[in-house]
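Now for today's protein.

===
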Amino acid sequence: MERVGAKRECIFETEGGWSDAGRFLLCLDTGSWRTERPRLEEEKCKRCGICSLFCPPQCIKEKGGYFRADLYYCKGCGICAKECPVGAITMAPEGEGR
């Protein structure tokens, strides 16, 4: 059993989005297999950043006052849309207009 506050050895080079790690966790090109991508409705967005906290590959960054997914790395999992408290992110089929 691990003691509270005990230092543990990480098996990954970097940690998750809740960490202060300076590099991406899953810096892998999405390629052409993503079927959906997040679409931000700016008028609904409260700029809380919750989407970026829950993004598994850490591809959501603040850009132009809003948090936006870098579609080069986005896997299309939809977690950002599910976690957005105001519904500002929806998932759109790949290929639809932005």
